[in-house]
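Researcher: Next entry: Polyhydroxyalkanoate synthesis repressor PhaR (Pseudomonas duriflava).
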Amino acid sequence: MSVSGRNDIRLIKKYPNRRLYDTRTSSHITLTDIRQLVIKEEPFKVVDARTGEDITRSILLQIIQEAESDGEPIFSSEMLKGIIRFYGPFQGVLASYLEKSIQTVVEVQTQAGVQSSQAWNEFMQTQMPVLQNLMRQYLEQSKMLYLNTRNMFGLFSGFSAVKGQKKEGDDEKL
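Model: Predicted structure:
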């Protein structure tokens, strides 16, 4: 127990029947309840009741999936495809960028004391084009760095760096 009289991290157990059990309140809860814990910034951890494995990320992804299915999604299909493409060599770069971007937006929202959705929407309408342009420039620079590095080390030598660019001897092969 902490000084406040309760455990610092709330433990949620997920049972094989897919039910979630809050050990602090000794009651079953839903993904909506867990979403409220996130919104209230209450620390919690979800574990598989049988194995003890930490499955918090999996539960959070389920909450995001549900939220994306309801109403207007945050992630377009193209954005999700882009994220999937980043898994691999640039995964850490994207993860760091997204984490810092979201943290910055939260900090700005907190500092500005944005209370109404209208004020938040106005902020996003003015900032999103700027953020999108910065991300586009960053991705373009990353792409060029990757292509230059690949060419420098001769990786994938059978392919040209720029689509449609002819390499020496291409005409002779026809």
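Model: Note for the record: The chain has six helices and four strands.
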